[in-house]
Structures are given as C-alpha cells and as structure tokens.
C-alpha cells in the first residue's frame, strides 16, 4: 500500500495513490468507530418473547400432553412415556449453585426416536421450527414445544445418550449461557458422566435405553421460582400432574386414533422415596401384520407425495387398549391422500389434502363425533364417527380458520367437500364415491315421490320412542324441523335463485311438496293449514329468477312457471 506523502510520477499512479490513501484513512476511522458507536437495532428479550408465546397456548395439562404427543409422532417415535419423578436428587456434582433447585421433582418424557440434527437446530428457532415444507407432520419443534415453559423455566433434553441441550432464557442456571445463545449444548461422554453424575442420573439412565431415544426433563416450577420468573408465574402442583394422567385415561382412545407412528403411551411415577418406576396407565394400538404394512406404505407415500391429483386410499381396523379402563375397542379407519375430484378448487395447489374417518365397531356404543387435526380439536360434529384432516387451524391448534374470504377457511371448506364427505360415503357404501356413482346401471325413466318414513320403516317411531324413554339424546328430522330450519336461516331475500344452494325452481317445488305432505302427482289444492307452513319460508321462486319468502302481506300469482 502507498503511504501518505509519496510522490506520484504519472497521472495513473497519482490516481492509484489517491485511492489507496483514502482507503487507508477510512480503515483508520473505522477502527476507532467504537469511540462514537454503540450497539443498536431491533431486539426482543427472550423471556418476554416466551411469555407472549405462552399467551397463545393453554397452560392446562391436557394441552401439554397433546403438544408433546404431536411432536413425538411427527418425529416418528413409536413409544411415548411420561414419568412423574417426585424425587429430590443429589446436588453435589452439578453445573452451579443455582442449578441445585432443578434437581427436585420433574416431569420426564421419553420417546424412542433420537433427535436428528435438524430437530436440534429447529428447536432453537422460535416461531420457525424444524418441519417446514414436510407434508407428513403436523407440529413444529420450536412452536407448540414452547408450551413446556408453562411448567418449567429450564427445559433440557438428552438425545442418543450423547448430547445434552439445556435452555436457560433467564441466563441463571447455566454458567455458559449468553444473551446470543441462552443455553448450552454439552457432549455427554464418559468424562461428562464422571464429573456430573448427579445431573446425568436425573435423565433416568437406569430406566431407559437413552441411546435409542430422547428424554426431556422439565424441572417443575416451584413457588420460589415462580415469584422471580419472567416467563411464567404458574406454580406447578401435584394436581397438574394428576390431571395429565387423567387426560390420558379419559382421552387416550381419541388421542391415538389418527397418530401415524406412536402406538404406545405410558404414564408412570417414581415416588419421593422410591427407586422403582411404577406404571399407572398404558394406552396401546394394535394392527394386524398386513394392516401395519399397508399403513407403513401409506405413510411413506404421504411423506413423498407432491400433489393431490392421484388419490391414495387406505382402509384398516385397529384395536385400542386402555389399561386404566380395562377396555379394548375396535375401530375402522379409512384414510386418503389427495381427492377424487375437484382438486382445482383448492385455494393452494401446493397444499396436499389428506384425511380420514374413524368409526368404532366394537363395542357398539354411541360415539360423540369430533373433528381432528391428527389430534382432537374442541369441536363436536354430531356425526356418529370422527373426522380427521389437515385443516387450517390457529397456532395452538385449537380453532379452525373460518374467516370469510380467508385462504384457511376456503381450504377447510374444500377438505370437507372433496375429502371428508367422500370418505364418509366410502365408509357407508364400502366403495369410493366416484366408483359408486359410475357403477350405477343405465335407466330409462324414474319417478320421485315423497314417501312417508312411517310407511317405509313401520317400526321407526317405536324405536324412536324407546330411545327417548331410555334417555338417549334423539334427534327427529321431518317436515317440522325442516320448516323451522328454513325460517331460521334468515336468507337475504329477495336474492338470485341461481346463486343459492337451491339453484332452480324444481328444488323449491320438491321442498314445498315435502313440507305440505303432497307428492308430485297429487291434485289437491292448498289447505288452510298450509298457509301457516308457507308463511316466511324462503322457497318462493318467481319468473324474474329471484328467490323470495312467502308472505300473506305480499301475495303472488301462480302460473305455469310455479307448477
């Protein structure tokens, strides 16, 4: 580099000298920027960020169970084991004085699928996770996983018996934690186990094959910790863990129904003065060898599928056992990747539609049908079976998106029309809906009539009355209920008939005949009783193509159009 004060001999060398001199002066100034500058830029305090995330997720034990279960299933684990370790562990060989409080009671969660490197990276990225772009997963490490902070301030996990990761958002428990990296990752080898045996033993090496899985340890937040925590002020009590066990006991059957990999869930306890693992509850699923192979192939296709234009159906039966309830139930599950028809209606062609229906075959007791997004949603459908699909839901997977005009709402409607309904028909008929409709024999003519249900099913009324007498919730659908429904719709009439679900005058005519108890070929005139039925019904089709409501205040004239 030329130095200041050097004499230039040619114009070119003079220009080069000037440029080098300017560069040298800039370097000198830059080296001393610290005299004037200090760090500046957008920054969010991690405890504050976590506290805001927790506002989107319930602090209930059932929701923590679902999030952990979802992550284990997405990771491909077959076993998920919850352990309430109530012991106080030794505190002599730990990382720091502050760590000692973490040696108390904890919730340990083991699954038999070690973390991959992308999972370790993803769990560090809040709001991103490790599963973006994968069709065969539902949750994301780094999102729903944060529900663990409702229970602890310092979650940790040991994977493959080789890597221990600790998150310390308060920079309090782990001496090596920094603002940039609020936690530490330790290599767990022979020397580590020798130097920190008290910490290593809290990961239950005597109970689990740690090389073949991952064990999360959530030291339960005490009242003392809650008082100073900037993440959550929730004190975890014994009842919270008991609620977790009860959730698995009561909802275990539903929780495992649509899982792709997890087949066994266990809840155990280690007493405060005990050294044995006491199993309290076990929920398992069983498939025949043939069905297990079919489902495995189905999952492989799901992970590799790129579009929904080539539907892949699967039907199998599955046993679900619950050791607490001492019950065994048999379910028929019908799943499908893609849709038979109408794929072009999807608001996002890159999204892959997949879903299922499940009906309990044994014992034949009434099922309160629910909607699922792999795990049950707080939505009762009223159907006699459960429906499942990759619905668009909120971040906490508690609510379906139904915002008018939104992509999520359009997607959910598409799934219901083109996937769930055909699967329901498949279940009822034993054939795919498109196959069923295409196999109908040719016909020359047909005549439709409204046949009273009492003549078609002579004992139906008696059966209904017996259900009511047995205090079974019974819904009777007939002209009266249809009349009430149509009047309650509050359609914005007058409106264009073609833009309503009725489409044409014939549909209005069919409904009117059903409501007034006449078939197409009856010649009688309208009775006085019909006037009360018709009043307010949005079934009046007029020649101008509009749909109106019947009103005695605004009479219309009948002509050939309305016959």
Automatic annotation (TrEMBL):
Any single Pfam family the record assigns to this protein: SACS
InterPro entries: HATPase_C_sf, SACS/Nov_dom
All copies of domain Sacsin/Nov, residue ranges: 43-279
Listed name of the protein: Sacsin/Nov domain-containing protein
NCBIfam families in UniProt: P_loop_sacsin (NF047352)
Species whose genome carries this gene: Geospiza parvula (Small tree-finch)
């Amino acid at each position: 580099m030329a130095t200041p004060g050097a004499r230039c001999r040619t114009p070119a060398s003079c220009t080069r000298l000037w440029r080098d001199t300017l560069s040298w002066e800039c370097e000198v100034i830059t080296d001393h920027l610290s005299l004037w500058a200090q760090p500046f830029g957008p920054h969010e305090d991690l405890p504050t960020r976590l506290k805001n995330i927790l506002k989107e997720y319930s602090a209930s034990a059932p929701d923590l169970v679902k999030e952990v279960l979802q992550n284990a299933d997405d990771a491909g684990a077959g076993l998920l084991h919850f352990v309430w370790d109530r012991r106080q562990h030794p505190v002599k060989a730990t990382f720091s004085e502050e760590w000692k409080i973490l040696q108390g009671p904890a919730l340990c969660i083991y699954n038999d699928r070690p973390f991959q490197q992308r999972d370790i990276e993803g769990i560090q990225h809040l709001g991103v996770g490790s599963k973006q772009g994968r069709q065969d997963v539902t949750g994301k490490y780094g999102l729903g996983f944060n529900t663990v902070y409702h229970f602890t301030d310092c979650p940790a996990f040991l994977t493959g018996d080789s890597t221990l990761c600790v998150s310390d958002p308060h920079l309090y428990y782990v001496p090596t934690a920094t603002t940039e990296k609020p936690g530490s990752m330790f290599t767990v080898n022979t020397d580590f186990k020798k130097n920190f045996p008290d910490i290593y033993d809290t990961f239950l090496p005597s109970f689990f094959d740690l090389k073949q899985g991952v064990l999360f340890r959530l030291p339960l937040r005490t009242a003392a910790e809650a008082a100073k925590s900037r993440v959550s002020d929730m004190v975890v009590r014994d009842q919270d863990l008991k609620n977790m066990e009860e959730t698995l006991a009561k909802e275990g059957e539903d929780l495992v129904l649509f899982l792709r990999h997890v087949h066994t869930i266990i809840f155990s306890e280690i007493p405060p003065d005990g050294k044995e693992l006491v199993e309290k509850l076990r929920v398992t699923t069983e498939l025949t060898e043939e069905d297990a192979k079919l489902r495995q192939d189905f999952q492989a296709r799901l992970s590799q599928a790129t579009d929904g234009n080539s539907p892949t159906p699967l039907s199998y039966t599955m046993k679900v056992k619950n050791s607490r309830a001492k019950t065994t139930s048999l379910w028929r599950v019908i799943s499908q990747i893609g849709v038979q028809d109408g794929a072009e209606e999807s608001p996002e062609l890159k999204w892959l539609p997949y879903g299922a229906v499940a009906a309990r075959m044994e014992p034949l007791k009434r099922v309160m049908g629910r909607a699922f997004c792999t795990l049950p949603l707080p939505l009762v459908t009223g159907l006699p079976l459960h429906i499942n699909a990759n619905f668009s839901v909120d971040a906490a997977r508690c609510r379906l998106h139904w915002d008018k005009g939104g992509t999520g709402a359009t997607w959910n409607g598409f799934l219901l029309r083109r996937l769930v309904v055909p699967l329901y028909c498949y279940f009822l008929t034993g054939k795919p809906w498109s196959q069923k409709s295409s196999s109908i024999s040719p016909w020359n003519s047909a005549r439709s009539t409204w046949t009273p249900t009492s003549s078609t099913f002579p004992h139906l009324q008696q059966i209904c009355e017996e259900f009511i007498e047995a205090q079974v919730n019974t819904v009777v659908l007939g002209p009266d209920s249809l009349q009430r429904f149509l009047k309650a719709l509050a359609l914005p009439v007058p409106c264009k008939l073609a833009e309503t679900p009725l489409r044409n005058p014939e549909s209005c005519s069919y409904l009117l005949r059903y409501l007034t108890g006449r078939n197409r070929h009856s010649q009688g005139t309208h009775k006085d009783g019909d006037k009360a039925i018709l009043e307010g019904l949005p079934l009046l089709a007029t020649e101008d193509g509009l749909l109106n409501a019947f009103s005695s205040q605004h009479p219309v004239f009948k002509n050939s159009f309305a016959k």
